[in-house]
Amino acid sequence: MIVGNDIGVVALDLNDAAQVEAAETFVMGMADGTAFHRPAWLKAIERGTGNRAHMLTAVAPSGRIAGLLPLTHMRSWLFGQALVSSGFGVDGGILAHDAAVIAALANAAQSMARDSGVGSAELRGGQQPGAGWAMHEGSHCGFVRPIAADDEAELRAVPRKHRAELRKALANPALRVQVGRDEAFVRAHYNVYAQSVRNLGTPVFPARLFREVLSAFGEDADILLVLEDDRPVSAVLTLYHQGRVMPFWGGGIADARRLRSNELMYYRLMSHGRARGMALFDFGRSKVGSGQAAWKKSFGFDPVPLAYYSWSASGERRDINPNSARYQRRVELWKKLPLPVANLLGPFISRGLG
User: In what residue span(s) does the BioF2-like acetyltransferase domain sit (predicted)?
Assistant: First the structure.
């Protein structure tokens, strides 16, 4: 336990059901709590990738939780290691509002990284941790907007040029949408997603990761497929958290661009989210200046800059940016790999990319 200003920071036991329930309740009660703060996320990542999960919890003198910081110990022979909040997520960071609690959690993360020999920590969003932490802005932006009142209003919310592409997909009688969570959906999603990321030059995540997230989140996660007749052409695994639809792992096969099936997929997901009572569509993060960011903007989403934080005992931050010059040749080579080879090798590399 690390104590300061009457705040104790302890490592929550993720195998203790009562402690996990208390942490889940705390996250759900915080307006800025995210799916990536939940113990369910941490445990799914650990089971799905083998990266160890930690949950630092600030405890007030009354015994109640006053703040928390989820951490995944990322390890890679290629990318180095770090304690990351949250591993494989696009958000996380310190979840607290009191300055003393924020400082206690930030100091505890530094101590854990230093004492364990990991040597560095990375926080994706959350409260600014304070002195000793570097802030990184300008690399990523987020995209969120309200879900419209009905399908027609949603269509009008899409800028005219992109709306014309979406209408072509809507008019294609061969395209249909299915939503589910069973093994057939998992296999179809993985096949589509693996092709999509290989074509972008990125190693695919282990199939078990998707299964574990679906299992951990229960009805708060599902898979939406777009099929051309009986062939899956686009697929997305979505999280639902505090009124937000969060499409997280999605993509399309090579024919998706011709079919405009990705446009159809996200449009139908907005409708599906509305039916579930969701209020916001969170399109996640994209790199500033990327084609993905431009595509989301053309769909009617305005970019909002994101801030990340890092601490390192050596003063150096690990480089996991696929756009980095050191990785460009590897990215181009990866795009040329046969899909079975990419699917075999990808999970061993991607475990350290989260």
Answer: 160-297
pLDDT above 90 as % of the chain:
75
Helix (H, G, I), strand (E, B) or coil at 237: strand
Closest CA to 1 of 43, 41, 61: 61
| Higher-pLDDT residue of 134, 62 | 134
- Topology annotation, domain 148-278: Aminopeptidase (3.40.630)
Which of 301, 312, 350 has the alpha carbon at shortest distance from 202?
A: 350
Q: Strands (DSSP E) along 229-292, which ranges?
A: 231-241, 244-252, 280-287
Neighbours of 150 (CB within 10 A): 11
Q: Do domains 2-140+307-318 and 148-278 have the same CATH topology?
A: yes
To which H or E segment does residue 213 belong?
helix 207-217
**What is the CATH architecture assignment of 2-140+307-318?**
3-Layer(aba) Sandwich (3.40)
Q: Report d(CA 188, CA 202) in Å as an integer.
A: 19
What's the rounded Cα separation, in Å, for the pair 231 and 249?
A: 19
Show me where the domains of the chain are located. Answer: 2-140+307-318, 148-278
SS3 state at 244: strand
Is the distance from CB of 351 to CB of 345 less than 8 angstroms? no
Reported as a single tens digit per residue, the pLDDT across 257-288 is 999 999 999 999 999 999 999 999 999 989 89
Residue 180: which of 215, 223, 218 has the closest Cα? 223
* CB atoms near residue 289 (< 10 Å): 12
Cβ atoms of 27 and 33 within 8 Å: the answer is yes
How far does Cα 191 stand from its chain's mean position? 19
pTM reported for the whole predicted model: 0.91
CA–CA separation, 161 vs 300, rounded Å?
11
- Cβ-contact 286, 296 below 8 angstroms: yes
Residue 249's H or E segment, with its range, is strand 244-252
Give the pLDDT confidence score for residue 4 in this predicted structure: 47
| Cα angle: 98, vertex 139, 41; to 5 degrees | 55
